[in-house]
Design a protein that fits this description.
CATH superfamily of one domain: Immunoglobulins
Oligomer: single chain
CATH class of one domain: Mainly Beta
Strand order of the largest sheet: 4-3-6-7
Number of helices: 1
Length: 260
């Protein structure tokens, strides 16, 4: 009899959750659904062409019934794209987008960026010895792999040179008229022979720089040219150079390096 009573209670309890009594004998349904469902197409699915252009990025999104505001700029009705055209090469921006549909408005964000100016690569030099009568001169032959800019964008290569003690001038080569030694207007140029160096020892330090100019922007590649460089001696270590008598640290010793 006790078991039958328990079964009866088990059968009655679920009914209480779904059916209640009121003065009007109405049925009360309990649901976990929100009172108002979100509107469709609420997610913008932001995308961009970041990294494709030097000074502009276009973002696109799904169509939405709400009003769009980007960086305080209202977007025309039914618009689903916006272009930032005032950026610098290699610039990053964090963009917030508001959708005015409800209160508070829906906010989404995306990071955009432009590509940099592509530099020359594999920038190298060789010393070219030229004998004129009893005089020996040392010219510098510079070579590189062209920048991967398109030919339509390309303006020129500008080559700069400066002596060791004034190498800091190449941080802003446009302000150093004496540093400029050549302008090459052909996109396919991949080398230059510096025969204007007034130096006959072959043991002199120079810094060279190739600047790529593209649509008013530029990118520099620097090379250090020292014609009498002797690499330092090799440091040789074995187990006897490593300490084993301390639990908190390891000490390593070696002989001084000689450049002679």
């Amino acid at each position: 009899m006790h078991l039958k009573n328990n079964l009866f209670l088990i059968c009655i309890i679920p009914v209480i959750f779904f059916i209640g009594c009121s003065d009007d004998n109405q049925t009360l349904f309990i649901s976990n659904l929100p009172l108002e469902l979100p509107r469709p197409l609420y997610k913008l699915n932001l995308q961009s062409d970041s990294g494709e252009n030097l000074n502009s990025v276009t973002i696109i999104w799904n169509h939405t019934d709400g009003d769009i505001i980007i960086s305080n700029n209202p977007i025309p009705p039914n618009g689903n794209s916006y272009t930032f055209s005032d950026m610098e090469p290699g610039e990053f921006k964090d963009i917030s987008i508001q959708v005015i549909m409800d209160d508070p408005p829906y906010v989404d964000s995306i990071q955009i960026f432009t590509r940099p100016v592509y530099p020359v690569t594999n920038f190298k030099y060789n010393i070219v010895t030229v004998q004129t009568g009893n005089e020996t001169k040392y010219h510098r032959h510079l070579s590189w792999t062209p920048a991967i800019e398109t030919q339509n964008n390309f303006s020129n290569y500008t080559i700069y040179r400066e002596e060791n003690e004034n190498a800091y001038l190449l941080n802003n080569p446009e302000n150093c008229d004496d540093c400029k030694i050549a302008i090459l207007s052909s996109y396919i140029d991949t080398s230059y022979l510096d025969s204007s160096v007034q130096e006959v020892s072959g043991k002199y330090t120079f810094f060279y720089q190739v600047q790529v100019s593209v649509n008013g922007y530029s990118r520099n590649s620097l090379i250090y040219n020292y014609t009498d460089f002797i690499p330092p001696s090799t440091i040789i270590l074995d187990t006897s150079n490593v300490s084993t008598n301390n639990n908190e640290f390891i000490q390593i010793t070696w002989d001084p390096v000689s450049n002679s």
